Amino acid sequence: MKKTAALLMAAWLVAGCSPTTEEQSFYGVWKIEGFTSTPAAGVAEEQAQKILGQTSVYSKHIAHFKEIQCLKPSYVVKTLSEDEFKNQHGIHFESLGLTEETAKQIEITCFDHPMEDSMTLLPKGENELLIAWNGLFFEAHRKTGSPFSMR
Q1: What residues contact 135, with CB distance under 8 A and at least 6 apart?
Q2: What's the pLDDT score for residue 22?
Q3: 85-96: average pLDDT
Q4: Average pLDDT, the chain
Q5: What backbone torsions phi and psi does residue 84 show, to the nearest 5 degrees?
Q6: What radius of gyration do the chain's Cα atoms show?
Q7: What is the pTM of this model?
Q8: pLDDT tens digits, residue range 108-119?
Q9: Any residues with CB less than 8 A from the CB of 51 and at least 6 apart, and which?
Q10: 141 strand-pairing partners
């Protein structure tokens, strides 16, 4: 009995120490190519235009958008109905080109320092991503896959 308990404890410890190597579909380098504004936008259109052409990076090790950089990101995935999405963001799926009945929403939090403005990702497909920031939805297209090896 003691031997079985010891083996179970050892297996549990080893399993708990193994690194997570799952690569998320939104990991990669993304080029920002357009945006949609909501009535709650906290940024002027001229400022949003300046963000076009910039790159954004998301991986296990970093989340980077504009001047916002997080070296220890946490990604919380939620599935929202259109009503929930409209209540939260003030915009309909159709306005963003979302065609499904639900949307996968990825909220980014930062362990190394809190972000002043929240940031949310909404995958539209394998190579398209919406970046919600300050009442704007930036449309980004994948430049490359994950920028860092998954160690």
Answers
A1: 37, 38, 39, 40, 41, 42, 43, 90
A2: 56
A3: 93
A4: 81
A5: -60, -40
A6: 19
A7: 0.77
A8: 988 866 666 678
A9: 32, 35, 66, 138
A10: 31, 128
Q: Which residue in 142, 125, 138, 108 sits closest to 34, CA to CA?
A: 138
Q: How far is 95 from 85, CA to CA, in rounded Å?
A: 12
Say how far apart CA 23 and CA 26 lie, in whole Å. 8
Residue 150 has pLDDT above 60, yes or no: no
DSSP 23: P
Say if CB 125 and CB 28 are below 8 A apart: no
Q: Is the dihedral of CA 68, 82, 86, 47 positive or negative?
A: positive
Phi (first) and psi of residue 7, to 5 degrees: -65, -40
CB of 109 closer than 8 Å to CB of 76: yes
Which long-range contacts link 125-128 to residues 24+ away (Cβ below 8 Å)?
A: 126/25
